[in-house]
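WARN no homologs supplied; continuing
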Amino acid sequence: MSESGEALQKQQDPGDAGAARAESSLDAKYVLRSGLQSTVMDGEAVIVDLSSNAYFTLNRTATIVWQTLERNEPLSESIRDLGKEFDVSEETARLDVEALARELLASGLINKKS
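OK structure emitted
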């Protein structure tokens, strides 16, 4: 997208969680992990993990994807929203969403729904 830097930034390290890299698919169902609180300020989300007191910030692109997950919609829905918001191709939006899903899984903020 038109932003620089990481989409997901962890602001406090509660210790080595040892999260494994996980493959993602836009067709997979994801759920937000329990124990998280989030809010959006100036188009960017702040997520607080109440169990570890760690917090994460999401840029505008990642916030759109996060809001899709909060509505319990498939990640594929966020592709359309990203295309409208940032005037990018479907392929670019898809690649960004897939990369973010991997980051969110690795950070333990979302889980794949069985």
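The helical segments are 60-70, 76-86, 90-106.
OK
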